[in-house]
Amino acid sequence: MLFPRKPTSRFLLFTLTSLLLLSFSIKINASDPTSPEDDSDDLEQLLALDEQEDQQQQDQEQESGSRFSEAEVLSKAQRIVLELNSDNSKRAIDENEYVLVLGYAPWCVRSAELMPHFAEAATSLKELRSPLLMAKLDAERYPKVASSLDIKGFPTLLLFVNGTSIAYTGGFSAEEIVIWARKKTGVPVIRISTVAEAEEFLKKHQMFVIGLFERFEGSDFEAFIKAATADNEIQFVETNSIEVAKALYPNIKASNLFLGIVKSEPERYTPYEGNFDMKSILQFLDYNKFPLVTKLTDLNSVRVYSSPIKLQVYIFAKADDFKTLLEPLQDVARKFKTKIMFIYIDIMDENLAKPFLTLFGLEESKDTLVTAFDNKGSSKYLLQSNPTPSNIEEFCSGLLDGSISTYFKSQPIPDNNNASVLAVVGKTFDDLVLNSPKNVLLEVYTPWCINCETTSKQVEKLAKHFKGLDNLAFAKIDASANEHPKLQVDDYPSLFLYKAGYKDSPIKLSTKSSSKELAAVINKHVRTKDQVAKDEL
């Protein structure tokens, strides 16, 4: 399963888009009363007709010099992707060695985003004469079929090899689907022998790994092949010609043994300088496969989050503002390559930006912001000066040397004059709780907490009851909008009694206790011997 099954608001916002894109694929009539053998013959006849039509189209294109229009390409993709249903799914999977199945739902936005890439990949794979059958299943319409194929969320991609399913682990662009599918069906490396082949290859591939070998044998070459097979995202190319290698990687210096990665961006060429073993090669690719600045999308988010580069800087900006910032930002990113990953999110894309910005209490911001996350320790940071290239570079240097303080969000400091229960925020937690000479009973709540209102009323009642006790203060903090390194709470509401002189070891009180029971606990821990206990409320 790639994504959750149930629709959310983000899916519903784009339902129309989803529905418009669900016209892909050939359709087998589920009510056709023909036998399985007849169905198999019909399927073979359809595929034969497709081949005949494709050849006719190619002949017409050569004669007229015309190119396929977008509609023609779409029509071609519709015939290539097989629409599975209750009648044909088992036969399709059992009778084909390789079947890549896309399980989707009509309401799923991510399904709608993936489907055209899937169709484009199907077209490319057919042109490459891949033995892979591409198929899709409306899992909402055919839930029993989806269950039998173990499709539990949308979209789900599964590769069936001789009837046994393998989870999809590749990327989600058409090129990435093609690369993953070819690797899993026996073509982990493309061999290029001539400069003409290299030039043609460059027209189709944005990113690839090149390996130059004197001979296609030996331990170095075997490590290259193993890495190509283990990798799920990048096309590997092999050659034994220095002329071909230079066509693919112009500034190559080696003459008989070389490995490097090529990307379509300013940092286009990166040579590999380590030992030729599978683990080292794969590690090199993990640290170098992303652009200097990666744009986060729904489809690449899993790959970004799983990057071994755990220190990640996020730039939130409007698209037009980011265009101005991109080039100088790339210069900054180049200085921290393999140490810090730079990620851009369109701040106007609420679905992507808001979850991050909420972590900083900045979800309403529309100005350019620079934040950072250290995923090793779950720490977060905020650039609190203007997001100029020089300030961003200084911020990144501070992240590496540890001079940047972890960011804890806080609401503005409130006015607590005449308040019986003090409102504490992140910025005042030290002063009002930890450094206060008084005993402090603190309520930790959130606005969405169902039971918090009842506890808040109890605290208000207790505050009035103990109003004359000078060594006791009552306070509350909204944990959804305020943070502090010494306040780690997972359940709401929570009540803590911070005793004077023992602030590092707060006593957790039961929120299920009655007001009288809580008063008794306070009397026990707070009142001095010469003070008269007063438990009646």
Description:
- This protein has 19 helices and 20 strands.
- It has helices at residues 9-13, 15-20, 36-64, 70-80, 89-94, 109-127, 143-148, 174-184, 195-204, 219-230, 242-248, 278-288, 301-305, 319-335, 350-358, 389-401, 429-434, 452-465, 515-526, and strands at 82-83, 98-104, 132-138, 156-161, 164-167, 189-191, 208-213, 235-239, 257-262, 269-271, 293-295, 311-317, 341-346, 369-374, 379-382, 422-424, 439-445, 472-478, 494-498, 507-509.
- The protein is elongated, with a radius of gyration of 31 Å.
- It starts with 8 loop residues before the first helix and ends in an 11-residue tail after the last helix.
- The relative contact order is 0.06.
Short description:
With 537 residues, the chain is α/β, with parallel strands linked by helices.
Number of helices: 19
The outline comes out as elongated
Average pLDDT number? 85
Unreliable stretches covering 5 or more consecutive residues: 1-40, 45-50, 60-68
Termini gap: 55 Å
Provide the helix percentage.
25-40%
Q: C-alpha Rg, in Å?
A: 31 Å
The class by helix and strand makeup works out as alpha/beta
Q: Would you count the extended β strands for me?
A: 20
